[in-house]
Specification:
About 40% of the residues lie in helices and about 15% in strands. The protein has about 375 residues and is α/β, with parallel strands linked by helices. The strands form 2 sheets. A 7-stranded mixed β-sheet has the order 1-10-9-8-11-3-2, with helices on both faces. A 4-stranded parallel β-sheet has the order 6-5-4-7, with helices on both faces. The protein binds pyridoxal-5'-phosphate (PLP).
């Protein structure tokens, strides 16, 4: 079977950043080299730490005529099966500074809260998690099983955050939020410093090989911004940075287009739940606004098929558990290669070493099984 058949893989929009001007020093003003290095030194000393696998999608690279496609498999990250384990848990450790009497709190759609709850459990701290009524019971249960007190709030994520801030202020709990606002930048920055160790692990593994393209999924942009900061810290060359988002929540694309933070109204929640965010966060935005070359938005249509192909080892030698937020990288890459204009615009050819981030495994097992079956 020809997996990259042009009819099968769709993107909605492809745009270029008119303000592109990648500047390593400028990027590292937002997350410093010291913050990045400290995150690596701390996290790599945690019990059970080991770098997640960097796999080769060799069947796909052969078919697309690319040199190599690397896939960073975060389904193997600690117990949490997602890169998110690096962020919230690390921020918990940093802000509590060994004080065992602190209670940490956060508002979450799921994965960040799990990381905070897991980080609190590691350190024996109390933890309060605020979720909106729309967060699934399975996700709430997962955080309770990590010992957190999970509080359901009427309304959406925003309402859960307001309630979290209110109760945390009244009770003197330490908020560990991954999204930044004007007066709340340090903790989100630490969270991103935690994510950036993915880039350190990648660079250690590829040795002297050069990465030419990085496809980065974005919700509020934290992971993408962290990986760009990691690229600025660790890579000698400057790869092309392509941000990918659900077409129903392409807030980074819209912001890059206008040159300032823009909100999008989410009318339909994407299957790619972790990426269904309406507004970029402030710290990542400062990094992404000039360092992203291109943005791609895509529909949900091909997610299940891509997940199945990962599971069947159709893209490379390995069977990979790729959750719904892990699928859009490969879809965007195939769609880009199938469109001659896009392919030549971003210089995808036989010299290209592309990095894709498999940011999660089956973090929501019910959803994973359902999508594989459908
Ligand atoms: C599980 C999950 N949550 C969230 C995100 C988005 O991260 P951020 O909101 O930091 O952009 C991703 C990655 O795309 C993800 O895989």
């Amino acid at each position: 079977m020809n997996i990259s058949n042009g009819q099968l893989w769709k993107y909605t929009s492809f745009t270029e950043n008119k303000n592109y001007s990648f500047n390593k020093n400028e990027i590292l003003e937002n997350i410093t080299k010291e913050q990045i290095d400290e995150a690596y030194s701390k996290i790599s000393s945690w019990e059970n730490y080991k770098p997640t696998p960097l796999l080769l999608l060799n069947k796909l690279s052969k078919e697309l005529g690319l040199k190599k496609i690397y896939y960073k498999d975060e389904s193997k990250r600690f117990d949490l099966k997602s890169f998110k384990a690096l962020g919230g848990a690390y921020a918990v450790e940093k802000v509590t500074k060994g004080n065992k009497d602190i209670t940490v709190s956060t508002a979450t759609a799921g994965n960040h809260g799990r990381s905070v709850a897991w980080g609190a459990k590691r350190l024996g701290l109390k933890c309060k998690i605020f979720i909106s009524e729309f967060v699934s019971d399975a996700r709430g249960k997962a955080m309770r099983s990590l010992g957190a007190d999970v509080i359901k709030v009427k309304g959406n994520y925003e309402n859960s955050l307001i309630e979290c801030i209110k109760q945390s202020t009244e009770n003197n709990w330490q908020i560990v939020q991954d999204v930044a606002w004007k007066d709340y930048m340090l903790v989100p920055t630490l969270t991103m410093a935690g994510y950036s160790i993915m880039m350190k692990e990648i660079v250690d593994e590829i040795n002297k090989e050069k990465i030419t393209h990085i496809f980065l999924q974005a919700g509020v942009g934290g992971m993408a911004g962290a990986m760009v900061a990691g690229a600025a810290r660790y890579l000698e060359n400057i790869p092309k940075i392509i941000v990918i988002e659900p077409d129903s929540a392409a807030c980074v694309m819209k912001s890059i287009e206008s040159g300032k933070i823009e909100k999008v109204q989410i009318v339909r929640e994407s299957l790619m739940g972790g990426m269904s965010c309406g507004e970029p966060s402030l710290v990542p935005w400062k990094i992404l606004k000039k360092s992203v070359n291109n943005c791609i938005s895509l529909p949900d249509d091909d997610i299940g098929r891509a997940m199945k192909l990962f599971a069947n080892a159709s893209f490379g030698q390995d069977k990979i558990i790729a959750g719904e937020n892990s699928a859009p990288g490969v879809i965007s890459l195939i769609a880009s290669c199938n469109d001659e204009k896009v392919k030549s615009k971003i210089n995808l050819d036989h010299n290209s070493n592309v990095l894709l981030i498999g940011c999660e495994g089956d973090t929501d097992q019910e959803m994973y099984q359902k999508l594989l079956k459908d």
